[in-house]
Amino acid sequence: MSAHVRAELLKLRSTRTNLGLFAAMLGLVGFVIALHGFGLPTEALGSRPKQLGVFGRGELLGTLFAALLGALSITSEFRHGTIRPTFLVTPRRGRVVAAKVMASMLIGSTFGLLAAALALGVGSVAFATRGLEIRLDGGDYALLLAGSAAAAALWAGIGVGLGALVRSQVPTVVGIATWLLFVEGLLIGDLGFGDVGRFTPGALGKAATGQDPLLAPGLAVLLLALYAVASTAAGWVSTERRDVA
Amino acid sequence: MIGTFTASAALTEPARGDAVVRVSALTKRYGDVAVVEDVTFSLGPGTVTGFLGPNGAGKSTTLRVLLGLAEPTAGEALVFGRRYRDLDEPARRVGAVLESNDFDPGRSGRNHLRALALAGGISRGRVEELLELVGLARAADRRVGAYSLGMRQRLGLAGALLGAPHLLVLDEPANGLDPAGVHWLRTFIRQFADQGGTVLVASHGLAEVAQTVDQVVIIHHGRVIAAARLDQLAARGKTLEETYLELTSEVAA
Question: CA-CA distance, B12 to B147, in Å (whole number)?
């Protein structure tokens, strides 16, 4: 692993911020899945797609927090001024952006994997407690875990790109959360934009876990990777060109 | 303006083969505002230079362009004959502290240095060495948020020195230091130069600089208005302070 990636990994784990993000993510996953698993009426949990929808909530939260981690990895440097010493040591800024993408994807995939695993665990306990039959098989579980890890990793990359582009911390964080939870979660999902809504980046993350019967998970990952490439490329170009105050 | 005062040819001549810093006809505009205009000076090895001027004179902008953080609008600024961004291992040639508080308050001093060292290909042992040198070994595992301003200045300096550079660029390094800290900094800068290192210290204060530097470049409204060795000023019977106030008030008037 390159020295620059190791430097970025050290930055990610040497403040409490990311530990806080991780704890908040686990807490929310546990809360949301418990709420659904224990709270929803039996008929809302009976079918396989409905169960996938509940267990798949881990992916959304893993993705959200991985994206925030990626965005914070660069906006916090602009916020605290550490971007100056960072670029003094590594004036070829593309290397810094690339290392942040790699490090954030690595930690982000762990976020996604563990969020999905916790969702499965809490969901299973809730179902068992209520005596409900789980209609998911081993393949579904594997896809929920792997798809969530992949989606969260790619969203971490998207977050780094957006953070590099925007630089300012609060707008970046608010923008990502608004997009994933409000714009995609409520507007596009509920108003039914048909096939367009299927290819937005949040929906692709969901499809990566096998929750969209019309979009193969592999294809969803590939399309989401294109978003990640576009975002990081924009962030990279912007970082190379703009002055640092 | 400069007519009132003979600028040192050695400082303002753009081309010198062994120049550690060479700034030639440097201009930096933000929109229509020229923050730095046609600035030229060069620094030889082993010298300590005060880069002086009132707040907003263009000192920090010049340093940012010199260090590759900002692009010049015209002209160029070279270190060791190259643009900073083209240096292979910049941390081993140049060390710089531009702001006194460029730290994540939640990260420990040791981890701040270790992350920089990793990126710069510098050993962990060197991090410990510098923590000792700047007197932060015992505080190294505390979060920087709990450091005093003086401790942050010293941590910044440690970061700049990680790669054992030959050029040190410091922007207002004495801000927030107590008298003992200022004394320590002066002694350090002197030793650094005596060992052949080159130092460029930007400051709006004169007292701490006059006792440390060999020569000054004075900038005002983005232009160099004087460049001289201190002994040249002394030969004119002027102190640095008299010269500085004379020149900066003249231009302002």
Answer: 40
Min Cα–Cα distance to chain B from A95, Å: 10
Q: Six-digit token pair at B156?
A: 């910044």
B167-176 confidence digits (pLDDT tens): 999 999 888 7
CA angle B129, A17, A10 (to 5 degrees): 35
Side chain identity, residue A42: T
ipTM of the complex: 0.93
Residue A74 lies in a domain: yes
> How many other C-beta atoms are found inside a 10 Å radius of the C-beta of residue A79?
15
**Do residues A116 and A153 touch, judged by C-beta distance below 8 A?**
no
Distance CA B8, CA A48 (A): 84
Total structural domains in chain A?
A: 1
CA distance B191 to chain A (A): 23
- Is A245 inside a domain boundary? no
Contact B96 A88 (CB under 8 A): yes
Residues of A in contact with B162 (CB under 8 A): 89
Whether residue B13 is predicted with pLDDT greater than 80 in this model: the reply is no
Of A114, A168, A165, nearest to A144 by C-alpha is A114
Measure in Å the smallest separation between the Cα of B48 and chain A Cα atoms: 21
User: Chain A residues with CB-CB distance to B under 8 A?
Assistant: 3-4, 6-8, 10-11, 14-17, 76-77, 80-82, 84-92, 96, 99, 243-245
Domain ranges, residue A173: 2-240
Cα B92 from Cα B166, distance rounded (Å): 8
Residue A87 lies in a domain: yes
The alpha carbon of B35 is separated from its chain's Cα centroid by a whole number of angstroms, namely 18
Lookup result for tokens 């994540």: B104
